[in-house]
Amino acid sequence: MINVAIIIGSTRPGRKGEAVAGWVHDRAVKRGDARFEVVDLAEFALPPLDEPMPAITGRYTRPHTRTWAAKIASFDAFVFVTPEYNHSAPGPLKNAIDFLYAEWTNKAVGFVGYGSAGGSRAIEHLRLVVSCLQVAHVSAQVELSLFTDFEDFTAFRPAERHENTLTTLLDQVIAWSSALKVLRTGEHHAA
Ligand SMILES: Cc1cc2nc3c(=O)[nH]c(=O)nc-3n(C[C@H](O)[C@H](O)[C@H](O)COP(=O)(O)O)c2cc1C
């Protein structure tokens, strides 16, 4: 079965990201066709990238890198839950992506964004970033508005229509991650 990480992309105290990731997880676990786990970036406490060698070399030296790498390696696919900070993704999320390479590659990702414009600009930037890592990013994306999906800009009350988009996103992520399995296992070399 495909293992999917729902990654909380914000780390600040009082973040909305936890509620959004919880909503994704609650809906996702009802499917039964994949396993889902919330991965909280804040728990990994990654410093600004401090590895001497680029991640593509796989030569990790720091214990926090190895812990993060083992976690991400255990998944086949990802849902990035991202706010928009200054028209882009939060620095800690970009940093956490930069720490690794092979652990992301040949997997699938979908994006759930939130912000005044649904987090769409953060998502567009993340699409460029994950392209560099050979991650297959699906087209369906959930865009949650601070104006209409958060009561008084605070309590998360997503409009019903987002559930359909989330279902499509998860369908696509699971399908692409399953299709890419031959690359992750190296079976295509034998064919
Ligand atoms: C540093 C910073 C920059 C922000 N810039 C934007 C922005 O460019 N566009 C936007 O829609 N919202 C922006 N916001 C608002 C965030 O989308 C909103 O505060 C959201 O709740 C942040 O996610 P979080 O609560 O999970 O940290 C910004 C917030 C912060 C903290």
Automatic annotation (TrEMBL):
InterPro entries: Flavoprotein-like_sf, FMN_Rdtase-like_dom, NAD(P)H-dep_reductase. Residues 3-145 form the NADPH-dependent FMN reductase-like domain. One of its GO terms (molecular function) is oxidoreductase activity. One of its GO terms (cellular component) is cytosol. PANTHER family: CHROMATE REDUCTASE (PTHR30543), NAD(P)H-DEPENDENT FMN REDUCTASE LOT6 (PTHR30543:SF21). This is NAD(P)H-dependent oxidoreductase.
